[in-house]
Here is the input.
Amino acid sequence: MKLLEGKNVIITGASRGIGSGIAKVFAEHGANIAFTYSSSEGPALELQEELIKKGARAKAYKSNAASFEASEQLVAQVLEDFGGIDVLINNAGITKDNLLMRMGEADFDTVIEINLKSVFNMTKAVQRTLLKQRNGAIINMSSVVGVKGNAGQANYAASKAGMIGFTKSVALELGSRNIRCNAIAPGFIETEMTDKLDDKVVQGWRDGIPLKRGGSPEDVANACLFLASDLSAYVTGQVLNVDGGMLT
Ligand code: NAP
Here is the structure.
């Protein structure tokens, strides 16, 4: 059964990793995919081709999610190209890890702007469309680190915890218009973001996971599929941990 037949979806940061995994799973479920990237044009165009080959309507857009103006322009362009928006997935994110002692102001500001301010930018930009149609789903890609904290990631943890507060507030504000807003808190998902970690740290993460493995982008994409589709029609304001039991 295709769960997103004909639905128009925007995914930020889908040129690789989790976002790319979501785009592929959603395309297989009949969605039309508008997705963004920051600088990886080659991989973004390859993904666009792959999605089209799967039979989806798909288009890659270079757009900085941290910019309010660029986010407004992006949404206007997607509305023109696709004719509507049903689902927004705020997935774009970065890390700039350091102990607080060594963390510079720019490292804090950049992570907050790309990970958290972007969620405000994009949600504001799609809000009017979703309100008018009295239907929509917003999914924010938080992290277990936003729930629990992590040494060396004060900036990232603050951004991801902020996303959870934002998610719950938007769920309360927009619920009466049948717009649902949920967050996903992935644990250790093996992507380029985690490739940067050293082997000892990675082994430490794996040892602490009850399912004894890192997650894949598809593991997160399947949770997203649930939250984007009518299977979760009565679920809003929640944080779904996709972490192999890490926070249990
Ligand atoms: P990734 O492999 O590093 O991919 C990040 C994506 O975000 C790329 O497509 C990148 O585009 C895009 N991006 C970066 N800055 C952007 C900007 N300013 N505007 C638009 N797009 C931008 O990361 P990932 O591991 O897939 O993570 C995806 C999300 O899941 C992030 O929010 C991350 O915090 C969250 N998460 C990941 C894990 C994990 O273990 N991997 C765990 C918990 C949460 P370019 O390719 O053009 O740079």
About this structure: The CA atoms of residues 23 and 33 lie 7 Å apart.
